[in-house]
Amino acid sequence: MIDIYTYIERGGSIVYLLMAMSVIGISIMIWKLLVLSWASLKVENISSSIASELKESSKFEIQHIQALVQLKVKQLESGLNTVKIIASISPLLGLLGTVIGILNSFDNITYQGLGDPTVFSSGISVALITTVAGLVVAIPHYIGYNYLIGTLDSLEIKLEKAVLNSIK
């Protein structure tokens, strides 16, 4: 049985790039999860700061309230585009590795012929490893991104309600 390190090594530079992207994306998702958890606990504090801004400006229109809440949520959202990009690019990098692996297989067949089946199978192996690696990176990032966006949406609704309640 081949261990994970052998697969990574056989996958080459694309797998190393995917691993680096995964570390970056997971770090961002953990950080955002902590930040959003903290913000969910501090909804009253955040809404009171927004309400005090409203009272200073004497603008109590719903559009102005929504704009201030959206600004606060937008600040909390920073970094999530990177996670989205990683989720989108990872399968494409896996596909690039697939194409490179198959190209190498055909190049090897051209130069060495089909006498030895390992000539063809090594390139196909690289193709499959990079495809799997791309999907392994993309799937959790896609799930994490959607979860965090959903959390932000519900936080935005909570903030709007809390601000409206505090200015009444």
Verbal overview:
- By secondary structure, this protein is mostly helical.
- It has helices spanning 4-11, 13-41, 43-57, 62-77, 80-112, 117-167.
- The relative contact order is 0.18.
List the helices and strands and how they pair.
Layout (H helix, E strand, L loop, with lengths): L3 H8 L1 H29 L1 H15 L4 H16 L2 H33 L4 H51 L1
Q: Which features would summarize this protein structure in a list?
A:
90% helix; 168 residues; mainly alpha
Order of helices and strands: HHHHHH
Radius of gyration: 24 Å
Structural class: mainly alpha
Mean pLDDT: 90
Subunit arrangement of the protein:
single chain
Tell me how many strands there are: 0
| Inertia-based shape | rod-shaped
How many DSSP H or I helices?
6
Indicate the percent of residues in helices: over 70%
Percentage beta strand: under 5%
